[in-house]
Design goal:
This protein has 468 residues and is α/β, with parallel strands linked by helices. It is built from 16 helices and 17 strands.
Length: 468
């Protein structure tokens, strides 16, 4: 008999393994941060002695989702930035907020984003923090990720130009300085939180990086093993700006600088030519698909079905709450599938199983974490969530994958386990006081909006009464 910490029995286990097996009366055993066994309830009953046993009573159990692109601090501007194109939105909403935010606010607002990720089944998050020159802000976001209990990668952005595009001085540094800070963060935080956290590199956008900056990021990635992520061709403006600077479009320029590679996660990729796609295939780049953000900013429909058909790794993402108004990965699953159907006028181009694959295995492959997360198998990290479908929105249930993608919402997520630790049970966080966090974050966001001047975006709308 094998001794384990936790045994969950009588679950409908959606393994997301290579055969996409679904175990009807399934069970999962957890020992430390790892999955010890996955099988039928009868098999695991015979095999394991558990410190704690949970009867799932037929609820569905899924591997944790991966949200491979967000800006956690942006819950600060939830509800402030609708109805603007991205270039106007960054100037009016996110840049003033990033310039004014303090460490305490960054912590609280990032923590809110983390909690919503967990509530929607996302157990791994890749954060893309702005390139602010105050180290305390970076550490505040990292601390929020650690305290939330989720698994994550914190990426340190390099922005070494873009003054003429309105990028504030506090968000621009020499590439060497930003990369030195990234290395320091890696030395300090890689493996923190019992191995839950690691550090990566990010490049803001093509119009805020120099060619030496691109080359320096690639060198640093090669030397440290950190991955690189970057907003790429979210709108046609990227190509316009790249043509003006270098006389070539964004992706050909990235290829020429040597920055593309299997460790490069390109975010958005809405406006893609055939040449762009071919370069991504040649360099085996991974893609982060942000359907809700792309709709919110009116950016367009990323050709994800085409990119996936060419063999590229695809992960799903919410983007920051500034261009989404939430961090709901269940909503993202649904919109991710539906938006492709609209774009191609083909209802069969993305099946529910495909959307779930992107949010689990695809995201894990994109982040280079496929040996750890993205499916349920012995030896992998114990990251999963339990879904009770018995709400009017999700009932009746026939196929658990279809239910998760199209009918489930946050109230259906009852239990969340990350790294073997039960973070939420019966819909309640066990490790922190959620009500207090939300109230503190509300107060912080209102103070911040006043200082940042974003409060005036509400002038012609109703304003929420401040909390005392
Ligand atoms: Zn983004």
């Amino acid at each position: 008999m094998q001794k384990v910490d936790l045994l969950i029995r009588h679950a409908l286990v959606v393994t997301q393994d290579d055969q996409r097996r679904i175990l009807e009366d399934g069970a999962i055993a957890v020992e430390g941060p790892h999955i010890a066994a996955v099988g039928s309830t009868a098999e695991l009953d015979a095999q394991c002695i558990a410190d704690r046993t949970v009867d799932a009573n037929g609820r569905a159990l899924f591997p944790g989702l991966l949200n491979i692109h967000t800006h956690l601090f942006q819950s600060a501007v939830k509800g402030l930035g609708e109805d603007m194109p991205v270039e106007q939105w960054v100037q009016a909403v996110t840049f003033p907020t990033a310039r004014a935010i303090n460490a305490e606010e960054a912590y609280l607002l990032s923590l809110v984003s983390c909690l919503e990720n967990l509530r929607s089944g996302a157990t791994t998050v890749m954060d893309f923090m702005y390139s602010l020159d105050n180290p305390a802000l970076h550490e505040a976001v990292i601390q929020a990720m650690l305290d939330s209990g989720l698994r994550g990668r914190y990426t340190r952005t390099v922005v070494d130009s873009g003054e003429e595009m309105g990028i504030p001085g506090v968000m621009r540094q020499r590439a060497e300085d930003a990369l030195a800070h990234a290395r320091a963060l890696q030395a300090r935080f890689h493996g923190a939180g019992d191995g839950r956290l690691d550090i990566g590199l990010a490049i803001g956008v093509i119009w805020a990086i120099t060619e030496p900056g691109l080359r320096a990021v690639r060198r640093c990635a090669d030397e440290t093993g950190m991955t690189i992520t970057m907003h790429v061709n979210e709108t046609p403006f990227d190509n316009v700006a790249a043509q003006q600077r270098w006389g070539r479009a964004t992706i050909p320029m990235l290829a020429e600088s040597g920055v593309l590679g299997p460790d490069f996660i390109a975010v958005h990729c809405v406006h893609m030519t055939e040449e762009d796609v071919a370069l991504f295939v040649r360099h085996n780049v991974a893609v982060a698909y942000n359907p809700v953000s792309n709709m919110y900013l009116g950016s367009g429909i990323a050709p994800i079905v085409q990119l996936a058909g060419r063999g590229l790794r695809i992960g799903l993402a919410t983007d920051g709450s500034g261009s989404n108004n939430c961090q709901d990965m269940l909503e993202t699953l649904k919109f991710g599938a539906l938006l492709q159907k609209v774009g191609r006028q083909d209802p069969s181009c993305v099946l529910a199983q495909q959307a779930l694959d992107w949010a689990t295995r695809g995201g894990a492959e994109a982040m280079g974490l496929a040996d750890q997360v993205g499916s349920l198998a012995p030896g992998k990290k114990a990251d999963f969530f339990l879904v009770n479908p018995f709400t009017p929105k999700a009932t009746p249930v026939h196929d658990p994958v279809t239910t998760l993608v199209y009918s489930a919402g946050q109230p259906n997520v009852e239990m969340v386990v990350v790294n073997g630790r039960v973070l939420m049970e019966n819909g309640v966080f066990t490790h922190l006081d959620e009500t207090k966090v939300l109230r503190d974050a509300q107060r912080a966001a209102q103070h911040l909006a006043r200082r940042a001047g974003t409060e005036r975006l509400l002038e012609r709308r109703g304003k929420w009464r401040p909390l005392e």
